[in-house]
Amino acid sequence: MTTITSALSLEPPRVANSGLGTMASTLVGSEILRIAGEVRALRETGKPVLDLTVGDFSPKQFRIPARLEEAISRALAAGQTNYPPSDGVPELRRAVQSFYQTELGLDYPLEGVLIAGGARPLIWATYQAVLDPGDVVVYPVPSWNNNHYTHLSLAKGIAVETRAENGFLPTAEELAPHLAEARLIALNSPLNPAGSGFRREQLAAIAQLVVDENRRRGAGSRPLFLLYDQIYWLIAAESAPHQTPVDLVPEVAPYTVFVDGISKAFAATGLRVGWSVGPPYLIQRMRDLLGHVGAWAPKPEQLATAELLADPALAASAAGSIREAINLRLAALDTGLSALARRGLPVRHLPPAGALYLSAQFDLIRELGDNRAIRKLLLEEAGFAIVPFHAFGSSFNNGWFRLSVGAISVEEVAPALTRVGEVLARAAG
Which parts of the chain have pLDDT scores under 70? Predict the structure, then answer.
């Protein structure tokens, strides 16, 4: 008799892509997760590694707010373990609505608020609700996963290369040539991977482009939408205060979908509570999409998040504590990289302005060829684990990398950068 194990080892059906659908068989896996696997393997050898790869928090370094933890425990003890409503528990939807009014000056109806299991399902639902196969999505690179969501939606992506002098954020002039054929612009600020944030005038100009393009199309035409991922806004640096397109250009509100959640501001990546805020007619379709795939957030976490957001001073204080701890680590990297640059070593970086990230360029392309070789050298010889910008859609040979600080201590930074300096000196020889 054939066992299941031996049956599964048999040659797959002799059809293209082994019988899988075209979208799934051509999907590219996450390079960040692949790199994380290499880091784990190197650590198992006993070598010291400063892991700056995954945009997550180590609970040893960052705890979720105590009030959030306590409220989850109370909700569990009270038996709040059944299905939540498909658009989120009313308490949390009202808390998000009020929080946006109080903290961002954005006045949305309750029908324009949708809760889901983190930000990712909401990004997917936006793409699915807006796009038909073959529609055009415009997004800057580097940026997180827009190329993959475009692929999942069977859409056509137009990746707009950005520049370091603009913090790797797109300008209106860079986006404008591509909007006539587009159905969606996907933006993120503060930006993963660069850790930069839009300046007021930058974002206002882009929002006005969206308004002007929709006016040009006229009533009855399919509109151009703006997805604005602001998951890091509560931990934006004071030197780069957060802006929203709707506050700057209110006329863009009918076309704008916000994506947000507790993952980054409260070091709560594993709790899976996110929300979208936008025009009700779009939010309701996103709700129905997510209802079919069951992508709701766990009910105890929803109720606890509602309690946290219902006290804006408490939420701001909790996010402020996370931001302060992040900034200590970013400052240590900033100081150490600046010292390496002053020694004439081939490195430069952008001052951190938000999120978990600092972006740095290790200018060894001439010596090593591409980002992959630079990353491999720094990992294997310096125990310095970083993610190249080509994992976010950029060129393989620009020398730019994302450094993420959620899983490290301040004390680990200086010894790691000493090792980096030694490797850079040898490589640039």
Answer: 1-18
